[in-house]
């Protein structure tokens, strides 16, 4: 097995009695993009800063490329970091900012110039090389920060909410640009966000955190399609969470009118159904079909978000409607639910 580029072993951080991060473990492989995702205050930045060396763990170990750097200062860690507010030096030009880490490494002058040119080329900033940060847009400043972090060719790139200072449209474009750049240089990357869509779009692996602890680690589709806890299900996108019961005839009973064949031990359960897993019946359905009534619906352009009622349950349904079917309140619909897209949730790690 190849060695992990980053190995976090049961790291923990306490401030007095307050536990900011507990028993956090993670292995990152070469070229992997891992995202720490969770609500404000869940410990994402503290974890990132323990990898960067700005926060010393109270317990556990941080290894980078096999070296124990738990108590090493940031400049001895082989990491490059992009801060939320970019942290550019206002009195230095773009190229001086990019060269900053190289100056510290006492690199030969010609090699330094080549490396800066390479970074300017990579981030398409050649034309701006003599500008100062205040003469750049937010997106350009972010690229300078990225170029500066990558210039020293670190083993790991660390990004702390890199898109949070940008407006929604720019955010989307830069997210795609940064993603393709990171993949092109194939650098192992750990980044922090509270934006679930951003995590799903960029990460190879997502670590969902709540109250200082890991709730679930998985690929974006594992986290979205098969969340283990209610916290993860509700944090990542819209979902229907329904108290249910599995009976001895192999059915999951969500309501007297909504029963699905299901393979699970008999007992009480909490079921999760994503809104897009509820579909209009076509008449040729293999999955069970249910009668539903439209409670309300909102047109989103590419689809409708509809609240439907089956028995005594109100459920969110996302999807398109053919022109002959109107999702107006009171309309009757036939819908199908694929039992394979229904997941049973367990209680959260931390309530
Ligand atoms: N130096 C400190 N002293 C005391 N408490 C701290 C310190 N730094 C962080 N904390 C606390 O630790 C918890 C985790 O903070 P952290 O910044 O890691 O959260 P976060 O998930 O990154 O949140 P956000 O998305 O708001 O940045 C918070 O409750 C925070 O108040």
TrEMBL record:
Keyword Transport on entry: yes
Keyword entries, A-Z: ATP-binding, Nucleotide-binding, Transport
InterPro entries given in the database record: AAA+_ATPase (IPR003593), ABC_SmlMolc_Importer (IPR050093), ABC_transporter-like_ATP-bd (IPR003439), ABC_transporter-like_CS (IPR017871), Mo/tungstate-bd_C_term_dom (IPR008995), P-loop_NTPase (IPR027417), Transp-assoc_OB_typ2 (IPR013611)
PROSITE patterns assigned to the protein according to its UniProt record, in alphabetical order: ABC_TRANSPORTER_1, ABC_TRANSPORTER_2
A biological process from GO: quaternary ammonium group transport
GO cellular component labels: ATP-binding cassette (ABC) transporter complex
Keyword match Transport: yes
Segments forming domain ABC transporter: 6-236
Family designation: Belongs to the ABC transporter superfamily.
Protein name: ABC-type Fe3+/spermidine/putrescine transport system ATPase subunit
The species this protein was found in: Rhizobium lentis
């Amino acid at each position: 097995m190849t060695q992990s580029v980053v190995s976090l072993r049961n790291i923990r951080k306490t401030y007095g009695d307050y536990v900011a991060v507990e028993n956090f473990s993670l292995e990152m492989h070469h070229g992997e993009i891992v995202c720490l995702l969770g609500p404000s205050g869940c410990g994402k930045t503290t974890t990132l800063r323990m990898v960067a060396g700005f926060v010393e763990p109270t317990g556990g170990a941080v290894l980078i490329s096999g070296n124990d750097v738990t108590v090493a200062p940031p400049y001895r860690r082989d990491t490059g970091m992009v801060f939320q507010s970019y942290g550019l030096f206002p009195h230095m030009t773009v190229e001086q900012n990019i060269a900053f880490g190289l100056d510290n490494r006492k690199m030969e002058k010609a090699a330094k110039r080549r490396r800066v040119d390479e970074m300017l080329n990579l981030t398409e900033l050649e034309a701006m090389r003599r500008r100062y940060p205040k003469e750049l847009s937010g997106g350009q400043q972010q690229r300078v920060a990225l170029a500066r972090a990558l210039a020293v060719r670190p083993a790991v790139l660390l990004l702390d909410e890199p898109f949070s200072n940008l407006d929604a449209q720019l955010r989307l474009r830069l997210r795609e640009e940064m993603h393709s750049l990171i993949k092109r240089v194939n650098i192992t990357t750990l980044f922090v966000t509270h934006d679930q869509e951003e995590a799903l779009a960029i990460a190879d692996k997502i670590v969902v955190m709540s109250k200082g602890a890991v709730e679930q680690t998985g690929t974006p589709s594992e986290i979205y399609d098969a969340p283990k806890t209610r916290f993860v299900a509700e944090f990542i996108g819209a979902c229907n969470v329904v108290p249910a019961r599995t009976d001895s005839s192999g059915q999951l009973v969500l309501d007297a009118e909504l029963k699905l064949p299901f393979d699970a031990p008999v007992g009480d359960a909490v079921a999760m159904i994503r809104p897009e897993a509820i579909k209009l019946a076509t008449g040729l359905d293999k999955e069970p079909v249910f009668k539903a009534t439209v409670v309300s619906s909102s047109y989103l352009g590419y689809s409708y978000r509809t609240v439907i009622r089956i028995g005594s349950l109100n459920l969110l349904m996302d999807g398109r409607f053919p022109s002959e079917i109107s999702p107006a309140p009171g309309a009757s619909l036939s819908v199908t639910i694929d039992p394979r897209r229904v997941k049973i949730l367990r209680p959260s790690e931390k309530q």
